[in-house]
Amino acid sequence: MASILRGKLNESRLLHVMAAHSPLSAKLAEETGFDGIWASGFELSALYGLPDLSFISMTQHLDMVRAMSGFTHLPIVADIDTGFGNAINVTHAIAEYERAGAAAVVIEDKTFPKVSSLAITGRQELLRIEEFQGKISAALATRRDPNFVVIARTEALIAGLGEAEALKRAAAYEAAGADMILIHSKQNTPDEVESFVRAWSGDAPIVIVPTAYPEMNEGRISALGKIRMVIYGNHAIRASVTAMKDVFARIRRDGGIHTVNKDIVPVEEIFRLQGMDRVKLVEKQFLR
Ligand code: SPV
Ligand code: MG
User: Fold this and answer.
1) Where do runs of H (alpha helix) occur along 2-86?
2) Which residues line ligand 1 (CB under 6 A)?
3) CA 173 from centroid of its chain's CA atoms
4) What residue owns the CA closest to ligand 1's atom 5?
5) So what's the pLDDT on residue 7?
6) Dmax of the chain from CA atoms?
7) What share of the chain is helix, strand, coil (3-state, %, to 5)?
8) Ligand 1: which atom is nearest the Cα of residue 52?
9) Does the structure show a pLDDT above 90 at 236?
10) Angstrom distance (rounded) from CA 12 to CA 226
11) CA angle in degrees (0–180, nearest 5) for 124-127-116
């Protein structure tokens, strides 16, 4: 999987990576033509009804990465938050995520426990640059496959520290060997990120997560040039919530499932996604 992602990155085009919180959502992303899956901490937390505050354990997230990697052919970009501790914990996390089938990790320069970057009044504390460089070095030294992609995420803009600090951190993380730099922003316009990208003089390609500034469409991203991956960070869980709310409300309102039935996928579509056709073949072959 890591070599597939590296291959795509070498194509020098923008990669489109969709969030997923289950093998099923990962498969739907694959069928829609995305380049990769974002194993989002936010989505998995929300699936459990929990805030994105490091409540979900590494084991829970790893289990989901494992389940997804067995179900999709797409490379998985795993959101490992702060790396579950210090540089020593990072060595353990990288070994586990590589074994679970991830092709890449994104590790962010916040302190543990993290607070969701999208929270309006979040406590956003950043690590010392040297300490985070140590975590990147630990990740690079631990990966077994050199194609495994280590993406360093700076939260300098999220923490309100400004562009100069974000650029300084990104350069330090590239110097420590990060393959790509994720610059995150929760401003509701693309200005902050566009300004960062224009000012970025490093060689490491940039990753963005434009949740807060949705008008940053792919045309606008490509025009900037240096962004090589766009992550749609939470659109699988938000789409699910939208659809479930609508259908649940209609069933209550209409007193049954008779009106919604035609508007939701038939059971046969779920059979297809579950691979029921394979079960039939196995039945024929082996059931005596
Ligand atoms: C996630 O999807 O868990 C992310 C992106 O890290 S964000 O929620 O925007 O921080
Ligand atoms: Mg996250």
Assistant:
1) 2-10, 23-32, 41-47, 58-69
2) 19, 40-42, 52, 79, 116-118, 209, 211, 233-234
3) 19
4) 233
5) 95
6) 70
7) 50, 15, 40
8) 3
9) yes
10) 10
11) 30
Segment 151-201, tens digit of pLDDT: 999 999 999 999 999 999 999 999 999 999 999 999 999 999 999 999 999
CA dist list (Å): 234 to 172, 210, 275: 29, 10, 26
| For ligand 1, atom 8: residue with the closest CA | 42
Q: 184 C-alpha vs ligand 1 centroid, how far in Å?
A: 9
* Burial zone of 118 (CB within 10 Å; 0-12 exposed, 13-18 middle, 19+ buried): middle
Write down all domains in the chain, each with its CATH number in brackets.
Answer: 2-240 (3.20.20.60)
**Predicted TM-score of the model (pTM):** 0.97
Q: Token pair of 122, please? A: 């979040």
Average pLDDT over residues 218-245: 97
Cβ neighbours, 10 Å, residue 22: 18
Share of the chain above pLDDT 90, in %: 95
pLDDT digits (tens, 9 = 90+) for 75-125: 999 999 999 999 999 999 999 999 999 999 999 999 999 999 999 887 899
Q: Show Cβ contacts of residue 175 under 8 Å, excluding neighbours closer than 6 positions.
A: 133
Nearest to 170 by CA among 207, 145, 216, 139: 207
Non-local (6+) Cβ contacts of 108 within 8 A are 81, 82, 114, 153, 154, 155, 182, 184
Give residue 273's identity as a one-letter amino acid code: L
With contact defined as beta carbons under 8 Å apart, do 37 and 68 qualify?
yes
Helix axes 163-175, 191-199, angle to 10 degrees: 50
Complex ipTM over 0.90: yes
